[in-house]
Amino acid sequence: MKLTIVGHWGGYPKAGEASSGYLLEHNGFTLLLDCGSGVLSHLQKHIDPTKLNAVLISHYHPDHTADIGVLQHALLIQYFLGKSNGTLPVYAHKEDTHGFRSLTYKDFMKAHAYNEQSKITIGPFSVSFVKTIHPVPCYGMRIEAGGKSIFYTADSAFKESFVPFGKDVELLLCECNFYGNMDASGAGHMTSLDAGKLAHETGAKKLILTHLPHFGDLKQLVSEAETMYEGDVQLAKQDMEVTI
Ligand code: ZN
Description:
This protein is α/β, with parallel strands linked by helices. Helices cover 20% and strands 29% of the residues. It has a single domain, classed as Ribonuclease Z/Hydroxyacylglutathione hydrolase-like (Metallo-beta-lactamase, Chain A, 4-Layer Sandwich), CATH 3.60.15.10. The mean pLDDT is 98.
């Protein structure tokens, strides 16, 4: 599996960058995980959007979905320019009816619902879900392919059930919107210490901190997470590629 960080800022994108968006590739199949603000622009450095095979959405906050509409426009315009890859499937929960409906667009994009019990197959990826603790319904995902696994927490406060759900993953892609001395749980987010604790308790081989805050010295997030976790900790960076 190859993971490309298309965007990693929490809330909104920094100038010239993007909020949540992650491109996963395996055996030639491409899956876009969340589609926040700025994602469509940066995605095109890595892939022609008409070549995407599927999209998976964790929740309907704009920093995870803002560019769905412009992705739909890209598919429409490219269709009229002679490029089409058929209907792009988008997997999302339907606890937000308006949000779910907005994912289907003409014949270019079609929404498919998952829930916490779902175990779905998207190309070579098998995906299971865990409900997170967040102000709106949101799901974390365990994604497996080629014998390797990723746990993407999406947005959440620390939750004990994440530990068995993410057991022994190769990569924990963990949101980290706050520093260790702050209260993140009230906002439905995690601190660097929560992320380190989760990496330690799941036995993840590697931890990438993402959904990063717009304040402070981000390197401090890494050093704080390292006080809880003995493995490799990295900050998500624009265009970073990781082979899992
Ligand atoms: Zn959110």
